[in-house]
Amino acid sequence: MSNRLINWFKFASPATFYPLAEKIWRWSTLIAVVLIAVGLYMSFFVAPTDYKQGEGYRIIFVHVPAAWLSMFIYLVMAFWSVVGLVYNTRLSAMMTSALAPTGAIFTFIALWTGAFWGKPMWGTWWVWDARLTSELILLFLYLGFIALQGAIDDTRRADRAGALLVLVGVVNIPIIHYSVKWWNTLHQGASVSVSSGSSMSSIMLWTMLIMALGFWAYSIAMAMARVRCIILERERDTTWVSELPEVRQ
């Protein structure tokens, strides 16, 4: 058991993780392209028309997975922030920084597609609904983290400040998730639940899950690509970086 832990901990070193990140990036990119292509095809050509919302409901196949990923990525950032603060590992802060832009993109997509869905369904692009407002706060948390990282010159201080901001903001995630239960909101409840199952047809559910897995693979691919760039930037004065073929060129 101890040997296995040692083997896993060796990847906490940027030098060891760098080549592994390339392999993960390549496979995740391939998986993301395939799953998203299949998911989009099913969204437009396989999933049936909803008897209440018509064709306009199809935007949920992008909106819902994007909303899921916006929250999940922030939780992963919180995990890496805790690991970085407790164990003081450099890679943890790098992973947190690498995940933030993708999380911000998915949060923006969730808000944007939600507005497009809300206009024909609610008659307005935006309402200060509990779910929408807390999701908007999540976007500000992502952007605030990115801005804070860029505003502090000292890398260690920037990493610590960013980690603390992420951990403070993580309280917003359960607010987003339970907002439709805690408050009388315009936003509809969850169509997919672990406890109560799904109110959607099986083909709609499979389409949504395939899109979610595709977005997940995309998030991993982007995080791996971005963390490799961060590693090269932060470790540029080390011997192992100077010996990399891509750096020599």
TrEMBL record:
Compartments, record wording: Cell inner membrane; Membrane
Which Pfam families is this protein grouped with? Cytochrom_C_asm (PF01578)
Q: Which residues cross the membrane?
A: 27-47, 67-87, 99-118, 130-152, 164-183, 203-225
Q: Name one GO cellular component term.
A: plasma membrane
- One GO molecular function term? heme transmembrane transporter activity
Its record classes its membrane topology as: Multi-pass membrane protein
Q: Which residues form the Cytochrome c assembly protein domain?
A: 23-187
Does Repeat show up as a keyword for this record?
A: no
Alphabetical keyword list: Cell inner membrane, Cell membrane, Cytochrome c-type biogenesis, Membrane, Transmembrane, Transmembrane helix, Transport
The Gene Ontology biological process annotation of the record reads: cytochrome complex assembly
Tell me the NCBIfam families matching this sequence.
ccmC (TIGR01191)
Give the similarity note. Belongs to the CcmC/CycZ/HelC family.
Q: What does this protein do?
A: Required for the export of heme to the periplasm for the biogenesis of c-type cytochromes.
Please report the name of this protein according to its UniProt entry. Heme exporter protein C
- To which species is this protein native? Candidatus Sedimenticola endophacoides
Give the taxonomic lineage as stored in the record.
Bacteria, Pseudomonadati, Pseudomonadota, Gammaproteobacteria, Chromatiales
Q: Which gene encodes it?
A: ccmC
